[in-house]
Every structure is written in C-alpha cells, then in structure tokens.
Task: structure prediction
Amino acid sequence: MTTAPTTAAPPVPATPAAGYAPFARTLVVFSITALLATAQLYGLIPLVNTIAADWHTSPTAVTWLMTVYGLGYAAGFLLFGPLSDRYGRRRVIVTGVAATAVATLAVAAAPGLGLGVALRIVQGMTMGAFPPVAMAYVGERIEPRRRLVTVTTMTTGFLAAAVVGQLAAQWLATFGWRVFFVAGAAAFAVAAVALRWAMLPDAPASGASPLDAYRVMPSLLRSPDLRLLYAAVPTVLTAFVAIYTGLQLTGTTGLLGLRASALPVILAIPFLTPRLARVPGPRRAALALAAAAAGTGLIGLLTPGTAVLALLLMLVTAGIAVAAPSLIDTIGSRAGAARGPAISLFTALLFAGASLGPQIAGLLADHGIAPLAFALTVMLAAGSVLTVAARRS
Result:
C-alpha cells in the first residue's frame, strides 16, 4: 500500500490543557444538531407537492430546493472546515448554526421558487459550518477510544433525518408547509446555544492560513490511497435521497409507514459499532454498499407491496448507515496529518451526491420506480467496486 499524501498539512490545533471534552454531552448535542441539519434536506420530500401547489409550479421544479440546499451545504464544508483551523471550532460552528436559524426563517417567508432557491443556497452554506468542523473537533477533543462511536452516532443523526425529517415535515404540513421551516429556525437557535454550552473553548489559534488546507486538497484527490474512496463517496447519499424522492414522485402508497420503518435500523447501527469495527473499513464499506445495491435492485425487479418494500428499504438504509461512517473512518485514518481537509472533502462529496438525488429521481421516476431503482443499483454497485479496489491499492 502506498503512503498517505506527503504534501504539508496545516497544523492541528493543540489539545487544551483541561483535557478531553465531556463525552455524553458532546455526543447528544452533536447528534441532535446533525439530525436537524439534514432534516432540512430530507424534509422537503413530503412537501414537494404542497409547495408546488402554493407556488403554482411543478413538483419536479420544487425538487431544486433540495438540490441547491445540498450544493450549498457541500460548499459550506469546503469553506468552513479550513476556516475553523484559524478561527476556532466552537466559534465557527456556533456562528454557522445561528446564521442558519436566520436563513431558515427567511425560507419560510419566501414568496416563490426563485427567491426560495436563493435562500436555500444560503441556508445550506451556513449549515455547512457544522459537519466537517464537528468531525475535526471530535478527532481533537474526544478520547480516542470513544471517537468511532461518536462519529458513528453523528452519522446516524445525519441519516436518521431521512426518516425523522420526513415524518416531521409530513405532520407539520397539516398546518402549512412554512411551519416546517419556522420550527426548524427555532430548533437551530436552540442548537446554537446548546453547542456553545457543550463545546470546550477554542484552543489558541494555530496561526495557519486557511489557504494551507485548500492547497492540500488537490493532493488528497490524487492520492492512490484516497482517490478511489473519494470516487465512491457521492454514490452513498445520491442513492439514498433518490429512492425516497422517487417514491414520493411516483405516488407510492403508505409512505408514512415506509419512512418510519427505516428508523429502527438507523438507530441500531451505533450499538453494532464495536462488532462492525472488527471488519476493515474498505471491506465494511464495500459490503454495505453491495447490500444497499441488492435492496434497490429488488425494489425495481419485484415492484413489491408495502410490507416487502419496507423490508427492502430497511436493507438499503442499513447499507447506507454502515457505508458512510466506514468511509469516514478509512479516509480519516489514511489522510494522516491532513485529516481535517480530508474530512472536509469527504463531507462535501457526500452531500454533493445527495444534491443530485432529487434530480435523478425527477428524471427517471416519470417512467416508474423500476428504472430509477435499477440506475441506483448500478451506482451503488460501482461504489462497492471502487472501495474494493481502494482496499487493494
């Protein structure tokens, strides 16, 4: 195996003299914030038809509200991850989440699609201050033996939003779709206060320029240890978002139960982490993506009833929930001293993929769920093959 990139990385801020951060409160506050962050992506799925009717446009056009949020979110990862090296993890996270509260409230007041799209870009970018900076904070401030559990639980929060966000939006839509964003704005305001309370004060500034991290990123993308893994990353959430969006656009019955059925699987993953960790990261990711591919393939092949569809969605969800933290763990460990920029790239690619999901669903779901499911099967299988190849590089 080749060595990790040798390009100089920005200095890692020193661990404070006070020691490691309190595990329990960090875990709880970070996981809830992670859930709130991606709930703003997935929560749009059950609101598509309602917003389209209110704004006198098509449901397919409204899917752009999901796409631009995901793109803004990914851009925020690349912007704020390196900035936090210079200005401090807590300062960047708290400021970003507080700004998201304001942006989310503005989305609730949007009068039409054009302004709604612009505000969703801003909302995604400000929320992008949380994931990569939180991952870096965990790597620096949480005890090493508890880091994988913390990262997996945060990832579970990101994925649980696919269920919780949709369920909450579907319920709040009975009071009007704008209520979902008003409630989100209030939740982000509370989260900003909780994050300031839960996080340790920032260590003294390292003096490194944020540009140092940006200079490292091209070498990470070219690294033989990492480039195949990075190529696999976008497939993870592209498929996950696309399958649920496709079910919404095709008018699948029993969506409330189908969304809820995946939640137990997502919540179980952190408890399985000690056993899953025994399998090397690339192999774990490859097997998980293969399982998700099998699930989407069977959805297209069988055109199943509600009960069987729920089981297949649980298989897809389990695969995604295992693959994402496995890829984070592998990329972070292989990047060495460039862990911070490497994770910023990972999260940017992950949610850039998520932003493509609604557009792929909109393009293929007009012909039924089967063509979409088969396309996603090919995508997930390709991701699995890439991670296998990365293991051998």
Remarks:
- The radius of gyration is 20 Å.
- Confidence is low (pLDDT under 50) at residues 1-18.
- Residues 306-335 form the longest helix (30 residues).
- Residues 43 and 169 are 5 Å apart (CA to CA).
